[in-house]
Amino acid sequence: MNRSALRILCASAFVALAAISSGAAPPQSAPPEPASLPQSVEVEQVASGRTKVTFSHRPERADSSVFLAGEFNGWNPTRTPMERMGDGFFRVSIELEDGRYPYKFVVDGAWIADPANSSREPDGHDGFNSVLVLGRAASDMPTEQRVVDGFTTPDWARDAIWYQIMLDRFANGDEMNDPPNTRPWTSAWREMSPWESEGGQTFWEWAVFGRHYGGDLEGLRARIPYLKALGVNAIYLNPVFEAPSHHKYDATTFVHIDDNFGTKGDAMMSSANEDLLDPSTWGFNQSDRLFLEVVRELKANGMRVIIDGVFNHAGDTHIAFTDVRARGRESPYADWFAIESFEPFKYRGWAGFGSLPEFEKTETGFRSSAVRDHVFAVTRRWMDPNGDGDPSDGIDGWRLDVPNEVPLEFWREWRTVVKEVNPDAYIVGEIWKRADRWLDGRSFDAVMNYQFAMPVVQWVSGEIKPSELDRRLQAVRLAYPEQATFVMQNLLAGHDTDRLASMIMNPGRGYDRANSERPGSRYNGAKPTDEAYRRALLAVAAQMTYVGAPMVWYGDEVGMWGSDDPFCRKPMLWADLPPNDDPEERIREGHLDAYRALIKLRNDTPALRRGAFKTIVADDARNLWVFERTLGDERVVVALNGSSEAQPMPDVGARGETLFVSDGGGAQAGTIPALGVRVLRIR
Ligand SMILES: [Ca+2]
Ligand SMILES: [Ca+2]
Ligand SMILES: [Ca+2]
Ligand SMILES: [Ca+2]
Question: In 118-232, at which residue ranges do the beta strands (DSSP E only) sit?
Answer without folding.
Answer: 120-122, 128-134, 162-165
